[in-house]
Amino acid sequence: MVEDYLRDNSGEFSPNAIGKALDRSSGAVHNALEKLVESGYAVRTSDKPKKYSVAATTVAPTE
């Protein structure tokens, strides 16, 4: 759910903001975000307050 939210919404989000949008606890969202950061899907853009966004992916052209 958190991964889908980041993919579908551009910008930086706090765990609290995502939790409110998804009707989930900010703690559960924070844990999911940290796992997404570890996997490289998301990046922490700010430590205080904690904010996250989807990681920028660079795809080289195939032609």
Walk me through what this model shows.
- This protein is α+β, with helices and mostly antiparallel strands and 63 residues long.
- The chain is 46% helix and 17% strand.
- The chain has helices at 2-8, 15-22, 26-39, and strands at residues 42-47, 50-54.
- Strand 1 and strand 2 form a beta hairpin.
- Helix 2 packs across helix 3.
- The chain is globular, with a radius of gyration of 12 Å.
- The model has no long low-confidence stretch (mean pLDDT 90).
Overall radius of gyration: 12 Å
Number of helices: 3
Q: Please tell me what the overall shape is.
A: globular
Question: Strand share of the residues?
Answer: 15-25%
Low-confidence stretches: none
Largest sheet: 2 strands, antiparallel
State the total count of DSSP E strands.
2
Mean pLDDT: 90
Secondary structure elements and pairings:
Blueprint: H1 2-8, H2 15-22, H3 26-39, E1 42-47, E2 50-54
Antiparallel strand pairs: 1-2
Helix pairs in contact: 2-3
